[in-house]
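Narrative progress, year one. The postdoctoral researcher (J.K.) led the effort to move from monomer predictions toward full complexes, under supervision of the PI. The following entry was the first complex the group processed end to end, covering 1139 residues in total.
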Amino acid sequence: MRLVMIILAFLFLLSCERVIDWQPQLTSEEKLVVEAIITDENKRQEIYLSTLLDSLNGGPNPVSGAFVMVENATESHLFWEDIEENGLYRSQNAFAIVPGSIYKLTIDWNGNKYEAWTTASEVLPMRSFSFPTYGETDSVYIAGIGVEYNDSEEAMYEFTIDWQHIIPGDSSIARQVHYVFTSINIGQLFGPDKDQLYFPKGSLVFQRKYGLNPAYAEYLRSLVVETQFKGGLFEESNGNLPTNISNGGLGYFAACSVLNDTLIVE
Amino acid sequence: MQIKSWYIVFIFFLFGPWSMAQSDFLDKSVQISGGKVSIEHFIERISDQTGVLFSYSSSQIDAKKSIQLADGRESLRDILAMLAKQYDIDYLIVENQVVLKRKGKDEVIEFDQHLYTISGYLFDSSTGETLIGAAVIVSGTGNGTISNAFGYYSISLPEGRYEVSYSYLAFKREKVAVNLKTNLEKSIYLKPDRITLPPVLIRSDVKTTLLESSQMSRLDLNQDKLDKIPEFGGEVGLIKGLQTLPGIKGHSDGSAFFFVRGGAKDQNLIIIDDAPVYNPSHLFGYYSMVIPDFTKDIKVYKSDMPVRIGDRLSSIVDIRTKDGNLNKFHLTGMINPLVSRLSVEGPIVKGESSYFASLRTSNIQWIYRAFVPNLDFGFNDFNIKWNYIPNKSNRFYFTFFSGNDLLANVVDGNTESGINWSNLASSLRWNNVINSKMFVNSVFTASIYQYRLILSGNSWRSNIATVSAKSDFNYYPRPDWRFNFGFAFSTHGFDPGSLSLNGGTKILPTITYGKSQEMDVYMKGIYKLNRKINLSAGFRMPMWNNTGPTTIYLYDENYQLQDTVNINNNVTYKGFIHFDPRISMGYAIDSSSSLKFSYGAYHQYIHLLSNTTSPFTSIEAWLPSGVNIKPQRADQLALGYTKFWGKRQYKVTAEAYYKHMQNQIDYEAHADMLLNPLLEGELRFGKAQAYGLEFLLEKTYGRLNGWMSYTWSRVWKKTPDINGGKYYRAFRDRPHDFSISLNYKWKPIVELNAQWTYYTGSAITTPIGFYKFNDNTLPLYGEKNNDRLPDYHRLDLGIKVVFNKPESRFKHSLTLSLYNAYGRKNPISINYNKIDQNGRLLIPVDLFGTADLVFSQRDLLRIMPSVSYKFEL
């Protein structure tokens, strides 16, 4: 009888998801992907340029030989490609964005000119996260990480968690992102199941908070809809992410104020 | 090439047998003695020899007139041809009778001729229930009518003697001789005829089709028909039944959404005793809100919609409930591992007043309680109806129904999180026969749909409420004229989404929407031009007003907020008036086939906003037309052909349609739909066109019966800000849709049924590339809805075993069914953003993670067995 109950429960209550061998018809069009987040830290800022992946799990195809420049009303900065890492462009000089200032990105690649404008955002103070223990183990996790509603702030938290000093190896470092939006999405309420990330007590956590202007927040909200929220029972219709890159480019150019903090999880 | 061949076979299957359709009794031979004989005497002789009945009207045929005959033996067909050729006497075959008429002329009733009226109600003699759509035929005159939605009929004729025949599906035909010298009230109680059900059923169908020959695109879905479909979890359900019909496409497994002739899911109006139901589903769509035992009659209009009901572009599902047995107590029930229901009905005062009460509740807790003890998951319904007949001219009804769903995580008796939705509706009706030619149905309805999401004590809620009063007049001045006219007042209240803190004060963002008032006037005339042609013309004129208090937001051409205007209480800030013409025409090619045409314009003022392709009802909001949302409009042309053949046990209906829709709603990519005061800025408006061909083949006679439907259709949308302004396929664009439902009475106590459904996969948007941003893998989509889900197909099987003898008062049966018998994995979505963790598909959370993303598909309900025990006392 119990077996029947389990079978019926399985049949009725659970929807089934399975891996399929599906071959999407990928375009051969060469699209420029811009990953340009500059900050208010006085440093050599970085911009990464690539094209579409060859497949779902393919590596990025770096874009070399592009002309890259960021400017605002008072200054302009040229970016040069890193000789050791194709596709990565660093500003010639260190500089920090000024909140409220409007910045323009210009990229010239393959005879095509791409432009983007953004308003540098401010950032509000960082909030603290708790690290509860997972069950009876010595492992911890970041509580409530994912997407959060706040009626007065939009932000992105990046956590780089490093426990290589406890368990050496490449797999002892991880990166998680937490978003704060002024809107609520259905995926927040009925999202698909997520993997869990546990790490040992004593891990180093580098916490970084980005203040977001409304347009970049909207871009990141769309990014979350297409990644973390996709695949649930109540998912939204598919759609391309918005972009501020002109001429058919993909990705985003944003100028964010940031806050950093480092802590050891006890 | 394969598809083309398939078409040819299909078309042949549908239309091939038509050429063989004939009335066999016309081939009977008759021995004729030569000489002069009166027509009256001659047809008596033929009747004696062949058993064929003749009827005629003395105003049409001079029965005393002599005709000259020659000796010989002729077929009845040849004799009738001779009468037509030599004596201008034409004939019609109605109900296996030969109806003689003057050639080339119908019985003409002069406009100033004094007419008397036969009118009354048609009842089921066993229960006292009124019979909707029963045929009333005046033999030999070509005149007839059908009973209306409340069982009332009226027909006016010149003074004379007539034989009036009353018939209805599964009831014995009743013939009444009347000597019409004054207005007559004739309420008729028809006796159920279960034994001869199939032939009666089809005869009635023929009559109804001929009598309503200008009405097209209407499908009848009564409980008898639903009972022939294999069940899902103990019930067939309205939506599952609808999906077997041509032109109606279900969303997917487990969904209450359906699409009619290319329309969106909010373009279907479901009314129960005139009260609108905004969400007809339970358990996210697995069950229909309509309790089967409570349902008396379901009519589905896909075009040529009646003027008395309005404000949806694509369909009206008009459900009439049972009144309650006026003669005796009756109890029905069903027990299933998932759902149980019980209905009782009976007289309060015998023959004068009765009640019907029905309760249904899910009992699925036993499935999950052991594994998820805090889960509270289920639904319940309660329906009640009361009716009272104070006298022959008046009748009152009261209907109330409520349906509730709950999915909650309950901790210490408190709902920690969950969702809950409910429909509440009621109607109070007064049927009044003002005089024998005028019938009035006045109804007051109130309906509310509420949706609530609870999260940590806070709740998001949305609702729509409608209160309406309507008077609908049916006027039958002459047998060839019928009018339907009336007016309605409605007020709608909308709350598209607000957040409450612990059930208390609303917190930001505040969304306020005011009220809308609607007034409708309508009129339709149906004119029988001659025996072959029926014309119908009318209009519906809705007048819509929006009033405060509310805040309206004004947007520029880039959908950016431009201005905000606060509207005070009861201040009208936007209004619409439209004139929606409706015309239709029916042409009876012969006694077994007809051709129909219709055109109608339709407007819709309330809209369901939901940017999801999920099959489940989720957090959706209804919004009215207003400053930013223009009313949706559809213009639909339809052409139809109906044919009976093979002793009328087969019926085929073929319809073609073209529908043009304006102000169709689409959404900005990743539209922010929840708790967004600027929700209207997320909407995009365009147009859509839908066209298609529909075929329905029905066999209602014999041990093997059922129906088969096929639809070829397309739906295209065009929205300036989407897909570069180019046409794109709608999600519901599925060119091929086929369904076959078979029922076989294997033994007197055993019935087998099967249903197979196939349709082209829904149009979806899939990636044409991927790229990296901040270590996330993101999709690049091509044109909107550039791809399709795999084709859908499913086989359902059922067997019903009856335990009682036919004459037993206590009836009980067991039904076993298997939904998706061969376990087809019909996907509802395709994804590309998960990792495979030992068979579990999960969203990765470590951006440095090295696990590969996989393509995956989600499906529902692979095999669903079900067993139900039903009883009746």
